C-alpha cells in the first residue's frame, strides 16, 4: 500500500520519501522538512495518532500539514485525529485521484513561507528559479548533485547532519550510496565553492558529519 501510494504520488509530480515506522519517519522529516506528511493510523512501535501528537508538540514540525490514513471510516478516530492536529482524515481504500486532490487542496491553503525564489547567506546566493549559485556577482559553476546538496545545507544552516541523513534527504530516489561517498560529494562541493571564496561555509564536524556554517 505504501509503495503504491508513493508511486501514484510520484507520477502526479510529487517527490516522495517513504518510512516504515515512526523512528525513521522522524529522521527523514527533521532532515528535509517536507511540505506534507501522509500518516497511517497503524504504525509498528508507535500508533499513528501518538506520532501525530508528537509532530504537533515539536516546534520544528508543528506547522507541517498531516493527512491521516485509516483502515476504518470511524467517526471517533476522525475526531481524535482532527483534535490532535490532523489536516485531513481519509478512510482506506481511497482512490489515488481523490487522495491527490485532497493533498493539493491542503497544500494550496498551507503557509509556504519557507519557499522563496532565492536563499542568501553570508554573501552566497542560491537562485532557486534559475538553478544558479552566485557570490559577489560571480556565477559559481557546479553539478546538479552539488547544487542539491548546497540547497539542502542552505535551507538548514547551522544544523549538523550525519552522512546517512544527507543521503536520505538529498538522494531521495532510493539510490543506494555508501555513507563515505558523501565525503566525495562534499569535497566536490567545497571545490566548486572555492571559486568564489565560500568553501569554508561547509564545515566538517569530526565524528558526526557536516554542516553549513554562516559567517558571524
Could you give a short description of this structure?
With 216 residues, the protein is an alpha+beta fold. It folds into two domains: 1-114, Rossmann fold (3-Layer(aba) Sandwich); 117-212, Winged helix-like DNA-binding domain superfamily/Winged helix DNA-binding domain (Arc Repressor Mutant, subunit A), CATH 1.10.10. It is 40% helix and 17% strand.
The poorly predicted ranges are: none
What is the terminal separation in angstroms? 48 Å
Count of individual helical segments: 8
Mean pLDDT: 84
Provide the gyration radius in Å: 19 Å
**What is the CATH H-level superfamily of the largest domain?**
Response regulator
Helix content estimate:
40-55%
DSSP strand content: 15-25%
The CATH architecture of the largest domain: 3-Layer(aba) Sandwich
Number of beta strands: 10
Largest sheet: 4 strands, antiparallel
Characterise this structure:
This protein has 216 residues and is an alpha+beta fold. It has two domains: 1-114, Rossmann fold; 117-212, Winged helix-like DNA-binding domain superfamily/Winged helix DNA-binding domain (Arc Repressor Mutant, subunit A), CATH 1.10.10.10. Helix content is 40%, strand content 17%. It has helices at 2-11, 22-32, 48-57, 75-83, 96-109, 144-155, 163-170, 181-193; strands at residues 37-40, 66-70, 88-91, 118-121, 124-127, 132-135, 138-139, 161-162, 202-205, 209-212. The strands form three sheets. A four-stranded antiparallel β-sheet has the order 4-5-6-7, with helices on one face. The chain has a three-stranded parallel β-sheet with strand order 1-2-3, with helices on both faces. A three-stranded antiparallel β-sheet has the order 8-10-9. A hairpin with a 4-residue loop joins β5 (124-127) and β6 (132-135). The longest helix is centred in the middle third of the chain and has 14 residues, at 96-109. The protein is elongated, with a radius of gyration of 19 Å. The termini are far apart.
